[in-house]
């Protein structure tokens, strides 16, 4: 993700109780919020999801070392398989962190980050609702960065709604999603969430949403 979450705020609001954290679309585990939070909330239950084959070997090794549950598949709106576009470069530099189930938006020459993707391949996928039901688990907090597929993921979580969600919101415009931020905010509102904070990075890259009936301390950076 582009923005930085206030980890102290998460600890203040969640560490006193049993804490279950999902990170969906993490790329490399050693650089993630899950990795950092595991040190701050060692008793927490952490689940990390990444579909890109490039990261699987190193992520599995790291997850085993620090005690995080790693799932090498996509979370989307499909139970089965989904076509996946692997990120290769961005602005002329190697960049494996921005793979997506969506193709890049190419209309009108739109490509401000000069991204190049490899040949797509099929990956295993689960709906969030399916994963939670099969594992009898509900996350308390979701950190999600799935390059424009955030609406598809979160609209398929059923009753397993976390108390708070930190989501990238800038990716809708970069991919052929047919989704915009207004649609995403409408979805969040319809599910009982309100907007707590927008990270100012790159004009608003990420946002924090919390359930209206969940009491939180004041969020600040």
What does this structure look like?
- It contains six helices and 13 strands.
- Strands 3-2-1-10-11-13-12 form a seven-stranded mixed beta sheet, sandwiched between helices. A three-stranded mixed beta sheet has the order 4-9-5. It has a three-stranded antiparallel beta sheet with strand order 7-6-8, with no helix packed on it.
- Strand 12 and strand 13 (206-211) form a beta hairpin.
- The chain has helices at residues 7-14, 33-40, 56-66, 128-135, 150-154, 181-190; strands at 20-24, 45-49, 69-71, 74-76, 80-84, 87-90, 93-94, 115-117, 121-127, 141-144, 164-168, 193-198, 206-211.
- The chain is 23% helix and 26% strand.
- With 221 residues, it is α/β, with parallel strands linked by helices.
């Amino acid at each position: 993700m582009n923005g930085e979450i206030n980890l102290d705020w998460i600890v203040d609001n969640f560490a006193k109780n049993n804490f279950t954290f999902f990170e969906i679309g993490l790329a490399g585990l050693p650089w993630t919020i899950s990795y950092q939070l595991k040190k701050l909330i060692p008793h927490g239950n952490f689940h990390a999801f990444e579909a890109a084959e490039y990261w699987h070997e190193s992520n599995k090794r790291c997850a085993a070392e620090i005690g995080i549950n790693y799932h090498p598949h996509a979370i989307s709106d499909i139970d089965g398989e989904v076509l996946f576009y692997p990120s290769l470069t961005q602005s002329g530099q190697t960049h494996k962190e921005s793979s997506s189930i969506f193709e890049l938006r190419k209309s009108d020459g739109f490509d401000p980050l000069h991204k190049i993707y490899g040949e797509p391949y099929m990956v295993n996928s689960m709906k969030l609702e399916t994963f939670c039901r099969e594992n009898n688990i509900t996350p308390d907090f979701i950190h999600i960065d799935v390059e424009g597929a955030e609406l598809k993921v979160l609209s398929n979580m059923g009753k397993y709604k976390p108390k708070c969600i930190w989501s990238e919101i800038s990716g809708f415009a970069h991919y052929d999603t047919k989704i915009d931020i207004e649609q995403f905010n409408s979805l969040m509102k319809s599910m009982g969430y309100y907007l707590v904070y927008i990270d100012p990075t790159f004009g608003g890259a990420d946002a924090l949403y919390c359930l209206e009936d969940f009491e939180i301390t004041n969020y600040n950076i």
